Amino acid sequence: MTLVVGQNSYISVSEADQYFQDSLDGSIWSGLTDGQKARLLIEATFNIDSLPFIGFKKDSNQALEFPRIVTRTFISTEPR
Questions:
Q1: Residue 16: in which H helix or E strand, if any?
Q2: Are 13 and 70 in contact (CB under 8 A)?
Q3: d(CA 7, CA 45)
């Protein structure tokens, strides 16, 4: 499967490379092929999007769960 930012991944392989460059486990990430990295980013995105979130997608046509719109409703506990 081809990684497409905004469709099946939140970030590109190059963006993940930059992130992991200074990470404690960066050597593990750098030892992977671009194909392995892409599969892991797609899987991570799927896992994130499988979580229950409050609010709504910013655009109902967007493929991923983020960005989101969250409205706050305050319920008063004071008697009327």
A1: helix 13-21
A2: no
A3: 10
